[in-house]
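Lab notebook, bench 4. Still working through the backlog of constructs that have no structural model yet. Next entry is a single chain of 188 residues. Request: give me the structure tokens for it.
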Amino acid sequence: MTKKPTPAKAASAVVARAKKIRILLMDVDGVLTDGRIWLFSRRDGTASEIKGFSAYDGAGLKLARAAGLRTGVITGRESAAVTQRARECEIEFVYQRRAAKLGAFEEILRATGASDSEVAYIGDDLPDLPVLQRAGFAVAVANAAPEVKRVAHYVTARSGGEGAVREVIELIVKAQGKWIEVSRNVKA
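Model written out:
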């Protein structure tokens, strides 16, 4: 029977993984949003999609950029709202309509020269599992599926769309010893 690590050893392992991170990737629905997809019906029979994003996550993404982290999203859906939010938050890698996410992950590794151990990935549901199993720092949001939580190195205290991404960014930036400088100098 394998012994479960003590909380101190578990925390130490998380910090060790976070120190290596150069690239932060994440899912969108359920991670940058609370997972709800609002459809606004129009008189002509069409619908417009509405997504809600956390301002805390947006500020966190600016902190990530100031700390030198490269960021990206890999999502199965395509949405103009995601394109707009990625532009606002200066997210470098934007992969939409990627139900099979591992291909996008590998494209990002090739483009950046990063190794698996230098990438953090935040997910919440089953399509995220292949990437989470490869990422050096696999993160599940608090409201993630049980299967996702089981493979994660870290589970956030906050739910998706409620500052979970900011929580992970702070953890990484603090582990890398950049928090004081970055938090003082980040521009809104």
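Notes after review: The chain has a mean pLDDT of 92. The first helix runs from residue 7 to 19. Flag for follow-up if needed.
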